[in-house]
Every structure is written in C-alpha cells, then in structure tokens.
Amino acid sequence: MASIFDGVEQGAPIEVFALNKGFLEDSCSDKVNLGVGAYRTEEGKPWVLPVVKKAEKAIIEDATLNHEYLPVLGLDTYSSAATGLLLGEDSIQIKNKNAFGVQTLSGTGALRLGAEFLAQVMGRRTFYYSNPTWENHQKVFLSAGFTDGHYYRYWDAQLRGIDFDGLISDLKKAPENSVIILHACAHNPTGSDPTKEQWVKIADVIEEKKLFPFFDSAYQGFASGDPVHDAFAVRYFVERGFELFCAQSFAKNFGLYNERIGNLTVVQRNPATTAAIQSRMTLLVRFMYSNPPAFGGRIVGKVLNNPELRQEWMESIKSMSSRINKMRTLLRNELEKLGTPGTWEHITNQIGMFSYTGLTEEQVKIMIEKYHIYLLASGRINMCGLNEKNVKYVANAIYESILATKP
To answer: Which of 101, 124, 277, 321 has the fewest CB atoms within 10 Å of its CB?
Structure first.
C-alpha cells in the first residue's frame, strides 16, 4: 500500500556527524578522530568539568527546586550572569540597563532567535557571513526569513591567514542595514582571528555603512583561557556605542554539549525599548519551542554567580586551552621535523579548537582511507583530538598524504 511519505527524498548526511559515525565503526587500532567539535582529554575521552559535577550535585540536592516551566525567556539568574561574562560585570551598558540576555537552546538557538527577530520584526533580509564560516550560519538565517545571503572574504589559502583587504572591501559593498555575522573569537573553521587593530577597522566600516553586527561567541574563555581576552571584540563594539546581538554558547567552555545552554545578549541604546523587544522575543520563542530547559542553565548560573566555583571554572578553561596550545606546538614541530612541504606556522598562529590545515580534499581522502584519521573535507581539524600518543602518527600521515599528491 502506498504511503504519503513515498516521495520523500533522502537528505544529505551532515559531514561532521557522518565522520564521527565512520570513526566509531572503524576497527583500526590507530584511528584518530579530528572531526567532531568537542573537547577531548589527553586520553581521548570526554571531560566533565569537576566544577560542573559540584554544581550538578548541589542542584540535585536542593529540595527547593522543582520541574516547573521556566519563564519563556529563561532563567534570569543565568542569562544575567551570561551577559555579564560577555560584556564585563562593570559594563556601563549593563549598569544603564541597555543590555539584557535571553536564555536559548545553545548558540544555534541564540542565532535563530536573533535572526527570527531581525527578519520577522525588523524586516531585515540581507546578511553577510565570512568565507569560510560555520556551516549553520547560512542555513539558520535563511530558515529564519532572510533571503539575501552574501559572503565576505576571510581566508587567504596562499597566506594561510586572513584576507583582511578582501574582508574590508566586501563589507564596504554591503547595503545599509545588512546584518554582519562576526565570530567573536576562535573563528570556526579557520582558527584565525583579526588583531585588535583590525577589529577597529572592521568597526569603522560597520559604523560608516550603518550595518548591524551579530556576533557569534561559542568559545569565550575556551580559546585563550581568559574570558576577558576572548570577549575583546564584542566589548570594543559595545564601548563604541554599537547596538548589536551576540549569540553565546556554553557547550565548549562548560563541556555542556548536550544540555543546549545558550544566551542571546541584546545591546540597545535606549532601555525604554527593552519591554517591546522582550515581548516580541517572547512570542517568537513561544511559537518555536515554548520555553528553555532548566538544568544546564542552573549549572552555568550557579558557577558564574558563585566566586569560588567561578574561580574553579577559570582554572578548568585554562587547563583546556593550554592542552590545545601544547598540541598545536607539538604538531607544528613534528611537521617541520619531517620536512613536510609548505609552511606550518599557521598551526601555532591560530587559536581555539580548530585549525585550518591547508590540506586539500584529495589529501583528506588519503588521510581517512589510508591512515584512518577522520577530518573534514575542508582540511579543518579539531586540535583536541590530538594527544602525545598520536601526534607523530598524524603528522606523518599529513606528510605522506602531501607527498602522495605532489605533481
């Protein structure tokens, strides 16, 4: 008997999840997973932060808590703490009530809520994203109602760094009121961030062209080990008087990947507009997912609002970022020791979880099929997948894959 679903076509696999599936099914003892965007210990295992365990225990044992619905815009003690972490506890915009946060379904949910608001309420239709960027940026904005997506140049494959002149040139061509997606730190997938001086020039163009900055902050504290350092770009824009959105995620820096804990920080010039913005966001959230989950928000809120727990969290993010930086140094050293063709200083110049290695699709295919090392076709690798036991093996595989494809 025919089904109404007979005509549904198979959807394309999501690359990173397909890679992870391939890795899990691979029986090779030397296999390495450099694809999935999650932190791994030196033993290649997921890490539950000790401070998170403490917060979880305290929440579970708190007899005053229940499982009632949260407010539509989330847990205020959490969203206020998240906004404070982003902008600084002494932020003049927070003191003047020009900034507030909305709890969302991780960073993706924050992007979607912000995009929905800009498209459905503000009537914005044009957005710009870096080339390359996180694959969901385009899809989220188009799904939210934007119709005109453009990229601005970002990565120079020859330089293996930022094409800053191209970036500025493309932003100057953007029509007024365009929404510009900016990575706050640890650019995904390249790991290459603008310098402070370059951020100033980017802000100049956005101000001159009357564009709207929408930051994506998925790695605050996780990138450098210092949340203040990683928030520089957002705080600079806010100090200059920009109105903006910033999507925050606590997946990486708290290790809360499956709790989907995010925050949309809104910065406005006049606190009198707060009630109207919140009312429209309340309706958007209600229509999409009704209200957010409590547990992860309670964890982050408890940690950030408790000085002792917050200090312990700071030590954890320093530990994670330090291990990543150590792997960058080891990988670069091994590649250079082997005499691998090309230059490899970009490995240590980049920051955060990911490195845009410069490997071609053909070389990536060899890495996967011959060496059982799983990475994205773009050549992006997750530095957390490296450890002292496998870094030489990975470096040698890169060396051999490049030699095998030399003309």
So the answer is: 277
Using the structure block, give the residue that is written with the tokens 């993010």: 317
> How many other C-beta atoms can be found within 10 angstroms of the C-beta atom of residue 308?
10
Catalytic residue among 170, 193, 216, 230: 216
pLDDT for 100-159, tens place per residue? 999 999 999 999 999 999 999 999 999 999 999 999 999 999 999 999 999 999 999 988
3-state DSSP call for residue 152?
Answer: strand
Per the listing, tokens 């063709």 go with: 341
Which is catalytic among the residues 155, 163, 252, 313?
252
Residues 407, 401: Cα–Cα separation, whole Å: 12
DSSP assignment of 253-275: HH--GGGTEEEEEEE-S-GGGHH
Query: CA-CA distances (angstroms) from residue 132 to 40, 135, 161, 182, 379?
Result: 25, 8, 12, 12, 12
- DSSP-assigned beta bridge partners for residue 151: 129
Q: Which of 47, 134, 155, 313 is catalytic?
A: 134
Query: Among candidates 184, 163, 224, which has minimal Cα distance to 356?
Result: 163
CA distances from 12 to 9, 15, 73, 135, 377 (A): 9, 9, 33, 14, 15
Query: What's the token pair of residue 203?
Result: 């802000």
Q: Coil, strand or helix: which one is 9?
A: coil
CB 199 within 8 A of CB 233: yes
Half-sphere exposure of 157 (CA within 13 A, CB side): 8
In angstroms, the CA 303 to CA 52 distance is 8
Among all chains, which residue has been given the structure tokens 């900034």? 99
CB-neighbour burial class of residue 29 (10 A; exposed 0-12, middle 13-18, buried 19+) = exposed
> Under DSSP, is residue 17 helix (H, G, I), strand (E, B) or coil?
helix
Reported as a single tens digit per residue, the pLDDT across 244-254 is 999 999 999 99
Among 137, 132, 85, 80, which Cα is nearest to 112's?
A: 137
Give the residues across from 161 on adjacent strands: 156
Q: How many CB atoms lie within 10 A of CB 8?
A: 8
Nearest CA among 299, 326, 310, 244 for reference residue 277: 244
Is 134 an active-site residue?
Answer: yes
The model's pLDDT over 370-386, given as tens digits with 9 standing for 90+, comes to 999 999 999 999 999 99
Structure-block tokens of residue 336: 């250079």
Tell me if residue 252 is catalytic.
Answer: yes
Tell which residue, 186, 161, 135, 130, has the closest CA to residue 324.
186
Instruction: Using CA atoms of 53, 55, 59, 61 in order, give the dihedral in degrees to the nearest 10.
Output: 60
